[in-house]
């Protein structure tokens, strides 16, 4: 049985040049989880929306989160352990430290950072110079979540602004979680 891949953008959504948007256009079966409020999100609303999408899926799910969505995934898994068994894995890209002074204002309920072990396979991808998370904190998140940690050198926030359009390396990581051959060679 194939998996359902859910794309989870972070704060302000993912624009047209973002790798998440490129992936949606290029690969079949990827579904963006749309939130009601991208500018001033409330964690409970985002968690509830993700819960609805996962419970509606008839197939196992792989989650692809960017930035604040990494926090969302960890919080959702903590609050919904029974449904978390339906998740095959998660690709957690550029996790933001919602507790850091550098984190933008306007979000509600995303602190403290959830640090429970994830009950599914996960790969965290972090940049050595991300303005929203230090190396130490990215390492701490990955260790707490029990995920593999992949470092990208000087990749900023791993988004469209940093030149991460199609991002073939990310697709290879997604293949490792899904086993779906359409992702095998990015």
TrEMBL record:
<dbReference type="InterPro" id="IPR010662">
    <property type="entry name" value="RBBP9/YdeN"/>
</dbReference>
<protein>
    <recommendedName>
        <fullName>Alpha/beta hydrolase family protein</fullName>
    </recommendedName>
</protein>
<dbReference type="Pfam" id="PF06821">
    <property type="entry name" value="Ser_hydrolase"/>
</dbReference>
<dbReference type="GO" id="GO:0016787">
    <property type="term" value="F:hydrolase activity"/>
</dbReference>
<dbReference type="InterPro" id="IPR029058">
    <property type="entry name" value="AB_hydrolase_fold"/>
</dbReference>
